[in-house]
């Protein structure tokens, strides 16, 4: 993630990179930002990743914010309040503040209903901003298209650049739709197209994602920056090794353990692992004695419609005895699963 | 409609009426507004009422804007551009400007997908406003909940009061849902609730609608102003009388003509007229010779799913021979239908 932080900072300290059409008035102000307004409308960085709408993006935002703070860039993350007991602001780490914005009811609002709450969310962001001195935020960084629409208004209002990360793209998802998955709605495709036009900088995780932005959304190539997501090497490291991790997790020392970790939804295709495991067992029945297939994560998104689908698949494939379903775990525990 | 105009002006010239919490800073500025930003996101005042999403609200907005302009209040109506050939601004009448805002594709965007376009629409409104001197608009008047959300942001941004008219309310519609009609979505209920809280003044058409605002949406009674919609008496008047109108419309001079005029959707219940006509014919078969039931208007909204439903009902009731379907007509022609 530190590569990301330095690239972002780098982009901004070389003003020509962000001097895009319509932003010429900002040229003189370009500099390393001191304070970033980060937008994460539909999922909170305080949520446990691995279930519901919280996953890799939450980890990404938290780690990025920490690293930015570590190099002296303050970050405020705006997210939608989903319970009434949340304080308006929570310090996630030194220099990283999470602001809870009231926009719609705390419970019972599906992700599909969030577009109708974007004005309310923007209103909450503006209210937080109104309490500050002019020029408080130097940059808006939005994640996922819902946040992008709020970021579009906020960046224009504040006269600062909009940096956007799609995380996933509707057209790309729809072009490779998993069997039984629901296509992403037109509203999202349209929304993403507008953000591609409005953003000053688009962050792609890979060169392929950059190509997809250009091919599917007609992004201007010069707006797209490829920044590979990092891994927190303080956490995800060999540490005391496989044997110790297996002991901690109560796993047999000599087992063959292919793992799925992530939210259970068709897009992430945990079924492929189950099919592979079934084929392995067909090819070598002796393997059954020592194979274990942990699935670590909760149901999510379109997977929520049939949360028991994967269990049923395991039964149908005749491998229910080797598959173990585990609820989502925190990052330290997840590192142990990877070690094991 | 002139009653409306003078009431609005009256409300604003007595500042205590609009000095609501959070607006105390406006107290000294309260006055008859010189320029109103009117918001009509999902339907254009330039559209022919009687089909699709254009109906009574379009007539209401056009007539209100004209009357406000006639008493010296300039009106700018912001609506979503639905074809690429529209000029950015069109003068509807002296003092009434219609501004077309680009927000989403021109065609193929359903009303249900518009919530995702509210940030884009707000962006377009802000862009139009940015070209003006500060304090250009003195008041925001939004119509229907989609516009209300844009109005919420615009009014706060400009520091002016928000006047909102619901036109219809989801909770009220859902409480008296016509058979076979689809309930209004939760997103709309939530959106309306937020506008009730955010608006400085809510315009109800009737005392009953005012009660509904209080009962269903917990509106503060003092915020609600009842202003009965007017009728354009220059247009809807006896003129040269029934016989002349019938001659112009090609209707028999001595016929009995119960009329339905409006968009064909379950909520407006044109089926009741057909059932009533069938009963009349049952009771007095001789009536068949001289009865004619015109249905003037196009299919709309939830009626669009089954546009031929009313034709089928007429056939099933055995009165297809007396029912005549006519496409929507302009206001002058509509007055002739009423005369006839």
UniProtKB/TrEMBL annotation, chains A, B:
- What Enzyme Commission number(s) does the record list for this chain? 2.4.1.250
The enzyme class is transferase
Point out the coiled-coil segments of this chain.
none
What reactions does this protein catalyze?
1D-myo-inositol 3-phosphate + UDP-N-acetyl-alpha-D-glucosamine = 1D-myo-inositol 2-acetamido-2-deoxy-alpha-D-glucopyranoside 3-phosphate + UDP + H(+)
The GO molecular function terms of this record are:
acetylglucosaminyltransferase activity; D-inositol-3-phosphate glycosyltransferase activity; metal ion binding
Please report the stretch or stretches of sequence annotated as the Glycosyltransferase subfamily 4-like N-terminal domain.
Answer: 55-230
- Start and end residues of each Glycosyl transferase family domain: 244-337
SUPFAM superfamilies xref list: UDP-Glycosyltransferase/glycogen phosphorylase
Biological process GO terms, please?
mycothiol biosynthetic process
The similarity comment for this entry is: Belongs to the glycosyltransferase group 1 family. MshA subfamily.
Q: What is this protein called?
A: D-inositol-3-phosphate glycosyltransferase
Q: Which organism is it from?
A: Streptomyces solincola
Gene name of the encoded protein: mshA
